[in-house]
Amino acid sequence: MTITCPPQKRVLISAYACAPNRGAEPGVGWNLIAFMAGVYGYDLTVITRERHRAAIEASEDPRVKNVHWIYVDPPDWISSLKRGAWGLKAFYLLWQGKMFAAAEEYLKSNQVDLVHHLTFGSILPATSLANFGIPLVVGPVGGAEMSPPELIGDLAPRLWIRDRLRAALYRFGCGLKSTRQTYRRCSVALGATADSVRSLMELGASDVRLVPQSGCGNDEVAAFVASHPVKGIAPEGPLRLVSASRLVHWKGVDLSIDAVALAVQRGFDVELTILQEGPECQSLKKLVKKRHLEKRVRFLGKLPTLEDVYQEMRSSDALIHPAVNEAFGQSVLESLALGRQVICLDWAGPGMIVDADCGQKVTPGRREAMISSLADAIGALQDRRQQWASIELAAIERAKEFSWDRVAEELHQAYQESLEKRPSS
Questions:
Q1: DSSP 8-class letter at 80
Q2: Label partner for 246 (CA 20 to 30 A): which of 343, 357, 422, 425?
Q3: What stretches in the chain show pLDDT beneath 70?
Q4: Residues 251, 184: one domain?
Q5: Are residues 243 and 333 in the same domain?
Q6: Which residues contact 394 (CB under 8 A, 6 or more apart)?
Q7: Contact 266, 372 (CB under 8 A)
Q8: Whose CA is closest to 78, among 57, 94, 89, 63?
């Protein structure tokens, strides 16, 4: 059903990550743009990356047929900068410069009622769209989520340095005059977690709302579920875990490996499948060897399609995702939508999504204590197989509470109220 928004309003969106049939942030950009154009009827112009052009133009999604796309990217040789978290931020700053130039050129001959910073879904770097003097919506964004304080002292030296540097740079970025000016000019700011909502308020945003950073339903995972319905039959054999996140230190994959090792020591038959790639891959493989888990842990890397990822999730007892500073956790939501429970920390985004009916949450603390609690949660999966059908249903029902419909409705409200604040010309 299309909800027309009369009179049709013109919105310019910055969406660094936006592509169909993709998970994570590109999926966030695509699905929310599809809803705002195809359901709410906004006249959208979207500035996104050149690398997404082929996938976007090949899409047959009718919801985006009237969206106007502008593609920009820094020169190809600069792509080599995009390595690790810092390289990604540096590359994004260069892209934002190209985006601003494209937006400025577009606005010379086109009237726009509203601008929206959608993805990069982070509070920092602050968007340059505020400089146009047009009502601005930001988000949903995260970034204020930090590691549990008790854990910091237990980090290896190189990870401690990264963690403290990240926290220091966040404080520095929030202290910049340009950052504060951006959020003071913002009509509505949407924060993905309580920490980010608090940070947006401290930055001077006058209207801040808590809105999930992502959703599910009427998307790729829903299509998989429709063609592969749950059966309500508990698995047999080893307890199977899957980890589905970029291999960066703050995703906590090392915690998962150590928890598996402890669970095995306690007599449980456990297997762990690790998906995706990242800078921590080699150190994680060394950890697996050190813990003598070569026959229990397999690294599959980045799988060819989302369907392959969903099949691995569906073949598991649970997703294990003890991320230490995660704004949302798309893999957590996808796992629930697939009917698979989640083991995570009671912290930031995953802690907000998972409840006792659809998973197990571990209290953040010192590393040794968290690993022990994670191992307890792994061991509990054996008994939880006795309630398999009810847990499966609870996971699916919980995922429905974080629907794209809900996030899009929040965006629609933010758009409407931002437009109402605009003084008449």
A1: G
A2: 357
A3: 1-7, 80-86, 422-425
A4: no
A5: yes
A6: 357, 358
A7: no
A8: 94
> Hey, is 175 helix, strand or coil?
helix
Q: How far apart are CA 126 and CA 137, in angstroms?
A: 12
For residue 219, the model assigns a pLDDT of 84
Element (H, E) at 136: strand 136-141
Q: CA dihedral defined by 254, 356, 405, 350, rounded to 10 degrees?
A: -20
Amino acid at 229: P
Angle in degrees, CA 333, 339, 341, rounded to 5: 70
**Domain count of the fold of the chain:** 2
Q: Where are the strands (E) in 192-278, listed by range?
A: 208-210, 239-244, 270-275
Rg (CA), the chain: 22
What is the four-CA torsion angle of 87, 89, 92, 96, rounded to 10 degrees? -140
9 Cβ contact list (under 8 Å, min separation 6): 42, 43, 113, 114, 415, 419
Kindly state the tokens that stand for 401: 């509470």
The two three-digit tokens of residue 313, written as one number: 């999730």
Contact 38, 16 (CB under 8 A): no
Instruction: Tell me, yes or no, whether 177 lies in a domain.
Output: yes
Closest alpha carbon to 128 in 17, 9, 12, 28: 12
Residues 176, 58 share a domain:
yes
Same domain (yes/no): 161, 98: yes
pLDDT of residue 78: 76
Please name the residue ranges forming H helices in 108-185: 149-152, 157-175, 177-185
Beta strands across the sheet bearing 239-244: 297-301, 270-275, 239-244, 318-321, 341-345, 359-362
Q: Which two tokens stand for residue 357?
A: 């009916």
The residue range of the domain holding 301 is 223-400
386 and 297 within one domain: yes
Residue 303 lies in a domain: yes
What is the model's pLDDT at position 282?
97
Shared domain for 289 and 413, answered yes or no, is no
Q: Is residue 289 part of a domain?
A: yes
- Give the pLDDT score at 3: 56
| DSSP track, 338-350 | TT-EEEEESSHHH
User: Tell me, what's the pLDDT at 90?
Assistant: 84
Place of tokens 């047929």: 65
Write the pLDDT tens digit of every residue in 124-140. Answer: 999 999 999 999 999 99
The answer on 129 and 177 residing in a single domain is yes
Q: Tell whether 184 and 229 lie within a shared domain.
A: no
Encode pLDDT of 288-337 as tens digits.
999 999 999 999 999 999 999 999 999 999 999 999 989 888 899 999 99
Q: Is the dihedral of CA 286, 291, 293, 297 positive or negative?
A: negative
- Residues pairing with 330 in the sheet: none
User: Could you tell me if residue 238 is inside a domain?
Assistant: yes
